[in-house]
Structure formats: C-alpha cells, structure tokens
C-alpha cells in the first residue's frame, strides 16, 4: 500500500509537525530540519483529527474512525491518555471532530452516532440539566434552491439564516419541555406560551406518517406588527436605505443634461 497523508498539524510553538498516515501511524517531525522524531502507534484505522493544545506545546490530540482518542506527548513520543468510544449495543463510534477549549482544560468530540463527548476536569453536574437527546427540529429538513441558486428551506421558502430560532426535540422529533427551549439563543426571554411548538403529521421516506414539529411561528408577529427578530429588522432597514439611495442616484442621473450644458436640477 502506498502511504498517504490524511491529516497534518503543527504544534503550538511550530517546532514540530505531526502527520497522520493511512497506515494508521502518526509521525512527529522536526519542522526545521524535516527529521523524523517519533512514530506514534495506537490507532487501528485512519485518523482525520489532529488538534494541538492551545498553550502547551508538548500536547497533541488525535482521533479517528477506529473510535480511539489519544492525548500524546509529542516531545517524548508517548501517549498520555486514551479513550475508546464504545457505544453499548452498537460497537464503537467513529470520531469525526475534536476541539480544545480556550483554557486547555476541556475538549469536546463528535462521533458518527450524533454524540457530543465532553472531557475535562471537575464534575459533570452542569451538563446534567440538559436532556440526553437534543436536536433542532430543522436539522434534517429538506432544502431547495431558488432561481438565483440560493438555498431555501423547502417548507417555509425562507433562507435558513432568516428563519426564527428552531425548537429542541429528541431523536424522534418530539419537542422538549419549555425550560429546555429557553436554552436556544433567541428564546431566552420568551413567554411559556411562545415556547410550545406547532405539531403536525408528516410522511417519512418509507411512507409512515409520524407526528413531528412542523411550525416555526411562535408569536402572532403579523398581528402585533413586530419584526421576527432584531437581525431581521436591521436587514430590512439596510435594504430600505439601499433602495432609497438607488432611487436617488437614478433621479439625479435622469435630471442631468445630456449635452453637458446648464446646471442640473437639485432634488
């Protein structure tokens, strides 16, 4: 097999370069001389995640499709910590991405089964206030493209970034109680009655009809004459100002003399 590099990362002070090779080895190189310093052995499948510690130049994190997460001391070529992402009844979960927190005390990983894994020091009590399954109800909604090839949500015909904040649901699409809906940015100060999503029946790909969250509207905005959000209001105001400037420019151009003689009329 011809070796191929699947991922590359510099350490925090750029003295070392770590490469992941498709033969499941990690190689540590001197970035100035190109000398191979260490072969890091431990992974059993390809590695697509290499993350350097935010301030400790000795530490590098690796993770891959074999479900293994390693913390390495690349100056010594040794493994410091190891975690295997075993999922009960389903085998291991491939790790797709990892990131350190800015203080270097925690790191978070995502896997192929939709799990968010959080590692660090201290207790896990702050994370126990949220349910085990959390998805946005719009996560798997189909998209379409308009005549300008821009992406739109198929159901609401809106651009995704202009849609109201989504609702939190479980893996089956059932909405969580209102106390969890307040965790969504943009819903922190909503009244309880505005945190209850609209439910409806939708057909799945295999023809089964299930009850799911289908509505986005949470308040009677049209009746109250309110903007859906501050951001939407700013966008509309900027568009209005641009339209006014365009109209003024066109009026000035049409009132100017074509032969260059005389003084143009002031608006």
UniProtKB/TrEMBL annotation:
Source organism, top-level taxon: Eukaryota
Region described as Disordered: spans on this chain: 239-267
One BP annotation, GO: cytoskeleton organization
Gene Ontology CC entries for this record: nucleus
Cited PROSITE patterns: WD_REPEATS_1, WD_REPEATS_2, WD_REPEATS_REGION
Polar residues biased stretches: 249-261
Pfam families: WD40
Keyword list, A-Z: Repeat, WD repeat
Repeat (WD) residue spans along the chain: 1-39, 40-82
Protein name per Swiss-Prot or TrEMBL: BRWD1 protein
